Amino acid sequence: MSWKIPVMLVIGYLLGSIPSGVLIGKIFYGKDVRDYGSGNMGTTNTFRVLGKKAGIVVLLMDSLKGTLAALLPYFFHSNANPMLIALSAIIGHVFPIFAGFKGGKAVATSAGALLIYNWKFFLLAWAIFLITILLTSMVSMASMVGFTIITIVSFFFGDPVLIGVAIVLTIFVFIRHWKNIERIKNGTENMVPFGLGYWLRQRKEKEK
């Protein structure tokens, strides 16, 4: 096996391990996002705890980790599959060595990797995600439904690597959102302040 592959995997993992939400929170807000909200250091909790600007920055940073990891084969002039190398960044994001191996839920970093691997599939994935979040007002629901539909659609692309990675990530996303599933069942899941689901909940509360 080429020496380039293990080096790229290590670099990818370290990129993924950069705790964007923790860094932005501590440096610019004097807060550790892990001490608030859901306790997660990902984009959604950053939005909730630190606000829109911080959330957008963390979203871009987490996505960029996947993008850079997927670009490593190009930088190293290797024929290694970009998505497989990007998996190391996704693993790093979920189990970051720089944050006690307790990270995010892999959504943004996966999207960033997909942008490089297959931009058409990336656009489709985001369209599905946005439509779902507009209907449900739940990022967790959009993530799970989005990954499920994306996995089904991946079979039509005829790419074994894409199919395999999609299946693995979908299973993992559901595992990482287990607590969210319980809250969705109980009707207590957090919602973004827009979309049909949010409007229906607000209407229901006003009628009480």
Automatic annotation (TrEMBL):
It catalyses: an acyl phosphate + sn-glycerol 3-phosphate = a 1-acyl-sn-glycero-3-phosphate + phosphate. It is found in: Cell membrane. It holds the Pfam family G3P_acyltransf. One of its GO terms (biological process) is phospholipid biosynthetic process. Its main location: membrane. GO terms for molecular function: acyl-phosphate glycerol-3-phosphate acyltransferase activity. Pathway: Lipid metabolism; phospholipid metabolism. Coiled coil: none annotated. This is Glycerol-3-phosphate acyltransferase.
